[in-house]
Amino acid sequence: MKFLLKPLAVSIALVSMPSFAGGTVLSELGGLNASTAGAGSAAISEGAESAYSNPAAMSLVEKSTLTGSLQVFNLNVAYEDQGSTGNFAGTDSQLDADNAGSTLPLGSVYWVNPMSDKWAFGLAMASQGGSSVDYGDDWRGASLISSVDLVTLQVNASVSYKIDDQWAVGLGFVSEYASLLQTQSFTPNINSELEAASVEFGFNLGLHYTIDDSNMIGMSMRTRLEHTLEGDFNLDRSGNVESYDASLSMIAPSIIKVSGYHALNQEFALLWSADWQDWSKNQSSVLIFDDSGLQANVERNWEDTYSVALGMHYQVNPQWRFEFGVSYETSPLSDSAENISNQYPDLPVDDIYRVGTGFTYQSSEDFSINVFVEYIDMGAPEIYYEGLAGDLVGQYDLNSAVAGVTMNWQF
Questions:
Q1: Using CA atoms, how far apart are residues 110 and 66, in angstroms rounded to an integer?
Q2: Separation between Cα atoms, residue 177 and residue 170, nearest integer Å
Q3: Which value, in Å, is the radius of gyration of the alpha carbons in the chain?
């Protein structure tokens, strides 16, 4: 069996792990700041979202607060072939992939409870990334990937300590569950499925400085999570299924974010954020078949990414507030020919532009509702994958949108 398993192992390994590529780390959803495209997320706490976005900002919460959010996320992944060769050349029925994306429901829950005038405790259940891509079994690159579903969930317990009227610090413990289901179609009679999961642990830290009632600055950091997803690789040859233990590496990067909030007058406030994501640690992915000891490395050569966001709040009246924001995030791969060869069809990466808007309605002193929508342009990355029996050459058009509602209860 090893004579067949070895080339399949190498082929599977050459498929990009559906990791938290630049387009799939949606920290603005976890921080509930999509209406400002992520601007201000580490500086303010209007509900209990700071239990996730910046534990130090929990010091701003005066009452026990419960926050819930429901969202719908739509991902569009279109591929246009530009001269693939060999096994990727395909036939007339194996041309482009009009839309390999999907529409997914998302949700998150947060709770912050002030324990004294100094201490506060928080709990968050949210996700900072994932993907669901389905090209089908008859597109040109089906031998690399047919479909992939990656789901992540973080449980974040945190505490904050208010040093004085201006300074506060926070510390959180993070546990993240990641689940992967990935399929490939080598021939009409040979298919594979990789199903794996893991739990990884990390920390998040926070610092918050209140200059005055109108100006605040916050900084947050999330540590890197290095998953080793373990599960089964199932090889289906004309209905005969053979199963092997396998593991696959995946990295969620360290993130450092600095944010500010500045109320210019009673109606208008300016928000901003800047962050760094440690994607340069993601230089390769490793697939290991535990039964045989075979393994293969996928070179990625990713770089750190940086982003900036600018947003605003406009208080229309005591109950209604309008919100808007834009952001820009660099790609973990530059545009050089060498880096194009490191693109993979799980979710190719490029520069990212976000535009978000929404409104908040304060129906009473203890209840508010926020409705938001965000459009994310993930670029048009090129791909030039050099395979053993041909090259996959094409270009993507990537974009997504998210809409949701968030509710805050104080009691």
A1: 6
A2: 23
A3: 23
**CATH classification at residue 289:** 2.40.160.60
Structure token digits, residue 309: 């966001």
pTM given for the model: 0.88
What CA–CA distance (Å, rounded) separates 409 from 68? 9
**How many residues are recorded in the chain?**
411
* pLDDT for res 91: 60
Consecutive H or E run containing 13: helix 2-13
CA 114, 120, 125, 129: dihedral to nearest 10 degrees? 130
b/e code 104-117 from CB counts within 10 Å (16+ = b): bebebebbbbbeee
Residue found by looking up tokens 């591929």 in the block: 79
The pLDDT of 37-53, averaged and rounded, is 94
Helix, coil or strand: residue 303 = coil
User: Sorting pLDDT into bands at 50, 70 and 90, what band is 408?
Assistant: very high
Most confident of 341-345, 363-367, 382-386, 387-391: 363-367
Are 373 and 357 a contacting pair, CB within 8 Å?
yes
State both tokens at 133: 């891509």
89 within 8 A of 393, measured Cβ to Cβ: no
What SS3 state is found at 166?
coil
Q: Is 307 buried (19+), middle (13-18) or exposed (0-12) by CB count in 10 A?
A: buried
Let me know: does 179 contact 165? Beta carbons within 8 Å. Answer: no
DSSP 317: S
Shortest CA distance to 374 belongs to which of 320, 330, 309? Answer: 309
Q: What whole-number distance in Å separates Cα of residue 7 and Cα of residue 61? A: 57
pLDDT value of position 16:
29
Select the more confidently predicted residue: 307 or 32: 307
Number of structural domains found in the chain: 1
Angle at 141 between CA 137 and CA 146, to 5 degrees: 40
Query: Hey, which of 107-116, 130-139, 236-245, 377-386 has the most confident mean pLDDT?
Result: 107-116
* Rounded Cα gap, residues 200 and 177, in angstroms: 7
Give Cβ neighbours of residue 335 (< 8 Å, ≥ 6 apart).
none
